[in-house]
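Model the whole thing, not chain by chain.
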Amino acid sequence: MTIMTIILVLMVMAALWASMTSILLRATIALALASATLAVVMYSLGATLAAVLELSVCAGLISVVFVSVISLTQRTPFKDMLKQRRDRLARYWPLPLVLVAGGVALSFVHAPVRIVLPLPGGDGDVRTVMWTLRQLDLFGQILVLLAGVFGVLVLFRKEGKDGA
Amino acid sequence: MSVLLLLAPFALLIVLNVLPRSTQGAAWAVCLVLFVLQTAAAALFPFAVLDWTFLAPINEAVGFTLAVDNLGALLLGTAGLAGIAALLVGRATFEQPRARFLFSCLLLVSLIGMNGIAMVRDLFSLYVFIEATSVAAFILVPLRKGKDAFEGAWKYLILSAVASVLMLASLGFFLLSAGGVSFDAAAAALAAPTPFVWAAAALFVSGLFVKGAMVPFHGWLADAYTSAPPAVSVFLAGIVTKASGIFALIRLAPALIGAAGPAREIILIAGAVTAVGGAFLSLGQADMKRMLAWSSVSQMGYIVMALGGDPSLAVLAAGLHFFNHALSKAQLFANAAAIENRLGTRDMDRMGGIAARMPLTGGTSAVASLSIAGLPPLAGFWSKLLIVLALWRGGEQVFAIIAILTSLVTLAYFLSLQRRVFFGTVLPEWSAVQEAGPGFVVPALVLAALTVIIGIGFPFLLPFLLGGGA
Amino acid sequence: MALEFPHSFWLYFIFFALLFVDGLWCMLATRNLLRVLIGLEILMKSVTFFLIVAGYLSGRMALAQAIVITVIVIEVVVVVAAAGIILGFFRTTDSLNVKNAREMKG
C-alpha cells in the first residue's frame, strides 16, 4: 500500500460520500474534498499547474457556485426529509458494495498494456507547450468563457426589466 | 483565410459588447453582414480565387494550426447560410432589442465555434470548439425563459456533458497509445490498432453519437428543438447539431473504417436505426416543431449511414446530404416559426387549409418537404440517390434498401404535415390569418430557391465534385 | 519528487473506473437536479484524473496538463450554465425534482 494508493482511496471515499449523503451542503463539501485529494494526486504525479488549478477552481470556485445555488433554492420541510432519506437509501445502498467489489475484482487484472514510450528529451514545460503549441486551445478557452459570460447575462437575471 | 474566420467574428463580438447600449439595436444587422461574407467566402473557396497571403503575418503571430479543405468549406458555408436564416427569423421573433442583441452575440460565439470545428487539425482542439458551440447552444435554448425551455436546455446540457466526458476519456487513451492527440497522431495509431486505440476510437465515436443525437442517445434533441425560441430552433436544426456531432464523424470516418474491425458495421447500424427510428417517431407527432425535430434525427441517421458505404462516394454523399438537410430543415423551421407567429399554435391537428392564407409559407414548405423526402428534381433527390448508390456499391444492399424504404416513411410524414397544416379548407378560426412578415418569408424563399437550383443544376456540378474530390 | 510512485496502468485505471461508476450512479439514481450536477462533477473529475495519469505514464505531462487546464476552464463554464438553468427551472416550477423535468415526452 503506497502513499499514492492511500490518497486515491481517500479520493474515492470522498466522492462516495458526496453521492451517498442526503444533505446537499455536505455533498458539496465532500466534492470539494474529492477535488482537494485529486489535486494532491496530480501534484505528486508531477502535474503542478493542473493541481493548482484543480484546487483553486474545482475545490473553490465550483463549491461557491454550488453553495449559492443551494442557498437560493428552497429547503424541503423536515418531515419530508426523513422520508426522502429512506427513499434515497433504497436507491443508493448498492453503490459502496459495487465500488468495493469492482475495485477488488479489477485488482486481479494483470493484462499487459502497451503504452507509448516517453519522448527522449522529455515533454517540455507545460507553460511553453500552452503558449507555443496550443494557442488554439487558449483561444477556445477564451471563447467558452465569453459564452459563459453571456450565459450569466441570459440566465441569472430576474424576470421583468427588459425581459429576454 | 482560416485565421480570419476565427478572429473576425471574435473581434466583432468584442466590439459589439464594448460599444454603448444605444448601438445594440443594430447588432443583428452587422452580424448578418458577417454571415453573408462568410457564406460567400466559403462558396468561393473551391475556386481559389481569393488571395489571402496578406494575412500571413497574422498567421505567424498567432500560431494557430488550422487548415481549410473542401469539407471544411462545406461546414463554413452551411453555418453561414443557417446563421442568415436564423438572424432574419430572430429579427422577426425577438421583440426586445436586448434579447435580439444577446441572440446575435451567442450566434457569433456559435459561429466561431463551428468555424473552429471546420478548420482544426487536432482532436482536443476539436473538442474545445465543439464545447464552445454546445455551451452557446444550451444558453440559446432558454433565451426565452419558460419551464419547457429550461427542461429542454437541461437535458441538452447533461447529455452534452456526458458526451464530453466520453470524448475526454478517449483522449486519455489516445495519449497512452499514440502519444499525442492531433489528427495525424490518431490516424497513425488507427493504422496499427491496439486495444487502447480501439477503446479510444469507441469512446470518441460514442461521444460524437451523443452530440449528434444518434439513437440511443437521441433523448435530448426533440425537447431542446421544440422548446427553444423559433430562431434558435432554426439555427440548431440547421447546423449546430450537425456541426458538433456529425461533422466530426464525416471527417474521422475514413480513418476509422480503414482501420478494419467493426467500425463500419457500427456506423451502418447506428445510422440505420437512427434513420428508421426518427422517421417512425415523426409519424405520430401533433406538434409541428416536434415532428421536424424527429425528422432531423432521422436525416442525421442517413448522413451517418452514408459513411458506411463505398469509400469513394461515402464522404461526398454524406456531405451533400449534410448541406441539403441544413437548407431544408432551416427553412422548415422558419416556416414553423411563421405559422406559430401568425396562428399562435403549433398543434397541427388544429390547423387546416393554411396554404390559401399563407401561400409563400405553404409553397416553400412543400419544396423543402419534397426535397428531404428525396423527390426529383430537388436537391434532396440527389443526396438520397448518392447515399443509396454509395451503400449499394459498397456491398451493403440491405442498408440501401432500408434507406429507400425509410424515404417512403419520410414522404409519408411530410405529406401528413402538408395535409394537416396546408391543404383542405380553411378553418374559420384561421380565416383572418395573413402571410408572415419578411423576416420569415425571405429566408424561406432564398433557401427554397437554393434547393431548386441545386436540384436542377446538380448533374452539371457532379463531375466537378467527383473530380475535385469532396 | 523524492517518493517513488507506481508506474502501473491498472492501479490508476481501477480508481478511474471507481470514480466513473460513482459519478454515473449518482447522476442516474437521484431525484434532485443539483445532485445530478454533483454526479456530473464527479464524472469530470474521474476523466481529468485519467488524463493526468495518461500523461504521467506516457511521459507527456506537459500536453496532458495543457489539456486538463483547458478542460477545467470549460468545466467551470458548464457548471455555471447548469446552475443557471437549475435556478431558472426552480424559479418557474418551485421545485428541484427531476421528475418535474421529465414531463416533455422527449
